[in-house]
Specification:
With 264 residues, the chain is of the alpha+beta class. 36% of the residues lie in helices and 23% in strands. It contains 10 helices and 10 strands. The strands form 2 sheets. A 6-stranded antiparallel beta sheet has the order 3-2-1-6-5-4. Strands 8-9-7-10 form a 4-stranded antiparallel beta sheet. Helix 7 packs across helix 8 and helix 8 crosses helix 9. The N terminus is likely disordered.
Length: 264
Amino acid sequence: MGLLSKANLLEQNKGLAFSNFISKYNISFFAIFELKQNNYVIVNSLGFDGSSIINSSSTVDFWNGVLSEENKLYTFSSKDLTNPLFQFFSFKIKDNVHKITVFKTANKIVLICNNDLPESVVYDFNKIDYSLKFTDLEKLNSFINNNSFIYKVEFDFQEAVESFLFSKKQKLNNSMEAYTSSIFNELSNRVLYNYTLPNSGIEFDDYKIKSVFICDSKTPKDLLINHLVLNFREVIENSAEIISIDFSGSIENFQELKDYLQVE
């Protein structure tokens, strides 16, 4: 086997960071379901609200009826009002759905909205290595210039998520901890994929993340916080007001950014 063929094989066998998967297919509206207590529930998402996540419990038989084969793409149009997948979207977000692509792997159901996806999305999803981080961090350097202002930001979601779930406790089918993790993932994904560049944030403690906001100028912190809270309200309603958002300082250069995000 030639050197080029060996290099291609190594590239094919490499894992894929989850954030790279999201970026590669320009995904902004998705949900990943896993089996919990004999039912599938949303464990990771972007674009979903808390009510949709809480009400996502679905049976194995349901999904076997919708998806007869593993690792095969199934696409549904929003024009089909009888589409059983619409049960996973609350009235607040249902109008945002135009197309649904869904597939199942050995242990997950993946639902992606509003993208035209090739078959390779299934292959790449199965390559995801969740331990991989910051594979594209060097690309952040190209966004830093003499006029940039880089905020260090820390988020603590736990109290707010638990407050929201307590207000919905009569609707919970699984443990509080399971839902807390799922809604935390939705909130943190909104930070990492809507407000920052991919791979510019990490989870550094339970239900806490830290990230960097690279601005063209010193945008007022209050303005950024207001935007963030409005976005988070889409997920956890009034409980978004008690999310701890700490603009803890600024970063002067790329090395400081790497140090802050704990990257070797």
